[in-house]
TrEMBL record, chain A:
It comes from the Eukaryota. Belongs to the universal ribosomal protein uL16 family. It is found in: Mitochondrion. SUPFAM superfamilies: Ribosomal protein L16p/L10e. Its main location: mitochondrion. The gene is Mrpl16. GO terms for biological process: mitochondrial translation. It comes from Eurystomus gularis. The keyword Cell division does not apply. One of its GO terms (cellular component) is mitochondrial large ribosomal subunit. This is Large ribosomal subunit protein uL16m.
UniProtKB/TrEMBL annotation, chain B:
Keywords: Mitochondrion, Ribonucleoprotein, Ribosomal protein, Transit peptide. CDD domains: Ribosomal_L10. One of its GO terms (cellular component) is mitochondrial large ribosomal subunit. It is found in: Mitochondrion. Gene3D superfamilies: 3.30.70.1730. It comes from Eurystomus gularis. PANTHER family: 39S RIBOSOMAL PROTEIN L10, MITOCHONDRIAL (PTHR11560). The gene is Mrpl10. The keyword ATP-binding does not apply. Coiled coil: none annotated. Belongs to the universal ribosomal protein uL10 family. SUPFAM superfamilies: Ribosomal protein L10-like. This is Large ribosomal subunit protein uL10m. It holds the Pfam family Ribosomal_L10.
Length: 235, 257
């Protein structure tokens, strides 16, 4: 409150002691560092598989929530992770975290999907190329790694942002509260949208014959996804 | 190649004249999922533009409204303890003096506390934000204007005001603002007057003396008349005796009374 001269007089009040965070319910697993992921699965595939890009498209149905850890990296787009990405993640996190107080776990499987590549400098034709490497498919909304232990989000955020920037799809470091808040904001946006026309409404009713220009998958994707990209600003 | 096309076109229902199959359109474009941002059909672009999110706009923008002051009432256990202590202080002690405390060197503070401790006066440092709510809810509401800026409480179960004032006179940085002695609020002048009063025993003796004054006079008042008469008659006798010894002896000693 300002004093007689109009200037606020600084006073010292009672010090409010902040209690240290409570880590009582957290148990560290035996191996706190990330497991080594193989380049090629133990049983390499013989039959070459079709491309099936639908494993990149749309929202993820698995690994969308936290299991053991408190913080993680959330994928905001679809993409393929190959062995180089896995090694980068593993080494960066192992270098930056404290194995005595923190732990990290994978939320994506080791590369399982074979990707073929034709040798360089050849013309089209001559059949499908041989298997070059293996990848894991990641859809948007999936957690890639989870980090937990006796640590705060601010300690973990720097190296998780570093890792998230190097992934082939847009990703963000996130905590349990952050994820919950994100979902809550989405719900609120849906509710207080002033626009009476939503993509979902127009597509389900096929207004103006819009389905001629849209894919049948747009009924499920509802305008939030375009190819492998996730449009976060859209309702 | 044209013969094959004619043969195919002459087939079943989809191959009617003038009907273009959709496969021809798909053949030339890219797949649904691409590494680059695939160009949208113009109709789709229009649809995306129409169905964008519109944020709600209240009639009065929130920055024109008065700001909402959210009072966080986190009842600190420590604050509760301090409040309880202040209540105890006000309950237990008979004399509570409120003084303004300016910053002093620490050794002077220690000396002052020692001198006051000799007279069984305790020095308590209080925080205004704790004392003010406690006082406003008790009967000491009129002490509230004293608790502004840095202050201390000098509390004691006895009432040694003279010694306290002597110590405080030697310490220029502590100024007496007011006191509450036996549930009576006194200002600085009042405290000085209180100090100048005689001690309890002396005042008790004085009241007893004043009360006993009248009864002590009653006996002398009652005996006054008869004593006066006795004195007059004695005088008379002396004068008569002096007159008779000059002339003759007294023939009638029975007349003397």
């Amino acid at each position: 409150p300002p004093g007689p001269g109009g200037v606020a007089v600084p006073r010292a009040g009672l010090k409010k002691y902040v209690l240290p965070p409570d880590y009582s319910g957290i148990t560290l697993p035996e191996r706190t560092k990330l497991k080594f992921m193989d380049k090629v699965p133990a049983v390499p595939k013989v039959k070459r598989e079709p491309r099936q890009l639908r494993d990149i498209r749309g929202p993820s149905r698995e690994a969308t929530d936290f299991i053991q850890g408190q913080y993680g990296i959330l994928a905001l787009g679809g993409g393929y992770l190959h062995w180089g990405h896995f090694e980068m993640i593993r080494l960066t996190i192992a270098r930056s975290m404290d194995p005595k107080t923190m732990f990290a776990i994978w939320r994506v499987p080791a590369p399982y999907k074979p990707v073929t590549r034709k040798s360089l400098g050849h013309r089209m034709g001559g059949g499908k190329g041989p298997i070059d490497h293996y990848v894991t498919a990641v859809k948007s909304g999936r957690l890639v790694v989870e980090v937990g232990g006796r640590c705060e989000f601010e300690e973990v955020k720097p190296f998780l942002t570093q890792v998230a920037g190097k992934l082939p799809f847009p990703a963000v470091p996130i905590s349990r509260d952050g994820l919950q808040q994100m979902r809550q904001e989405e719900e609120e946006k849906k509710l207080n949208n002033q626009n009476p026309w939503t993509f979902e409404r127009i597509v389900t009713a096929n207004m103006l014959g819009m389905r001629k220009y849209l894919s049948p998958y747009d009924l499920r994707l509802k305008g939030r996804y375009w190819g492998k990209f996730f449009l976060q600003h859209r309702v | 190649a044209p013969a094959a096309k004619m043969a195919a076109l002459s087939g079943g229902a989809p191959w009617r004249r003038g009907w273009l199959p959709a496969l021809q359109l798909v053949r030339r474009g890219s797949k649904a999922v691409t590494r680059h941002w695939k160009a949208m059909h113009f109709q789709r672009q229009k649809l995306m533009a129409v169905t964008e999110y519109l944020a709600p706009r209240p009639a009065v923008p929130p920055r024109c409204l008065p700001p909402k002051k959210e009072t966080l009432e986190e009842d600190n256990g420590y604050a509760r303890l301090l409040r309880r202590q202040v209540e105890e202080v006000f309950r237990d002690n008979r004399m509570i003096a409120v003084c303004q405390f300016n910053s002093m060197p620490d050794e002077d503070v220690v000396l002052m506390r020692r001198y006051l401790r000799k007279h069984n006066i305790e020095v308590k440092f209080v925080l205004n934000e704790i004392v003010r709510p406690v006082l406003s809810q008790s009967k000491y509401k009129n002490l509230l204007p004293l608790f502004v800026a840095r202050n201390i409480l000098l509390v004691s179960p006895e009432r040694k005001v003279k010694e306290m004032l002597r110590v405080l006179k030697g310490v220029p940085q502590v100024n007496l603002l007011g006191a509450c002695i036996d549930d009576t609020i006194l200002s600085k002048q009042g405290v000085e007057n209180f100090a100048k009063l005689p001690s309890l025993e002396a005042s008790q003796g004085q009241t007893v003396g004043a009360l006993a004054l009248l009864p002590s006079q009653t006996s002398s008042l009652l005996q006054c008349g008869s004593q006066h008469l006795t004195a007059l008659l004695d005088q008379h006798i002396h004068r008569l005796q002096a007159g008779e010894t000059g002339s003759t002896a007294e023939p009638t000693p029975a007349q003397s009374s």
